[in-house]
Amino acid sequence: MTEFSCAQCGVYACKYQDGKKFPNFCLTKADIAGEPASDEIEAIRQHLCEDNEDARVYQASVETEGFFFCKNTRVEEVIEFAKRLGCKKIGIATCHGLIRETKILSKILKANGFDCITVGCKVGNLDKTQVGIEESTKIKPGGFEAACNPILQAKILNAHQTDLNVIMGLCVGHDSLFMKYADAIVTTLITKDRVLGHSPALALYTAEEYRPWLLDPTIPKR
To answer: Most CB atoms closer than 10 Å: which of 2, 12, 126, 167?
Structure first.
């Protein structure tokens, strides 16, 4: 049963206390690295009740959800979250394709009392071939094509000692590297999807009727 996980569940006993039976494959009851999940759950519970950064981040996120659920936009939630953490300086790691939106966000954050530093994804001005990418892999081969530099984005924001970093549409994988190298905690405001107007969940909502090739790769993409 190890191939089953939360995506196969229809009970959701973890969300309620109404007597529902946990499925045999429930991760709430499974072993984690050879230890009972109950031991890890208790260790995490104790950790989040102590005075540490994780607990403060967790408390701020729960307060933001609880006080502003279905009331605030995500932009407003980021502001409330940052205020509850006592953040003074917010870093923005942005895709250059979203620089207009980032300029607006920067103005909003400054209007709400935060210092703000923005680092675009093309910082460093390196051609893709300079970081080991084949010319044929470029979107438009044959000329200079700036490489994204998420590691440098993170290092610059680290140098500015940001309290919180916000991702604005970094590419898939580049966002992963940015989060890996950033010192401050990271949240995402916009997840880039050029095809769906930066609303990637639409691919899930339309998978069964309008994008069946997502569920069956043998179906030709229209």
So the answer is: 167
pLDDT in tens, 157-176: 999 999 999 999 999 999 99
Task: Clarify whether residues 58 and 151 are in a common domain.
Answer: no
Say whether both 63 and 84 belong to one domain.
no
Q: Enter the DSSP assignment of 117.
A: E
Q: Residue 181: which domain range?
A: 76-191
Q: What are phi and psi of 99, to 5 degrees?
A: -65, -35
DSSP secondary structure letters along 123-171: TT--BGGGGT--GGGSSSTTS--BPP-HHHHHHHHHHTT-SEEEEESPP
b/e per residue, 110-138, with b = 16+ CB within 10 A? eebebebbbbbbbbbebebeeeeeeeeeb
Asked whether residue 219 is assigned to any structural domain, the reply reads: no
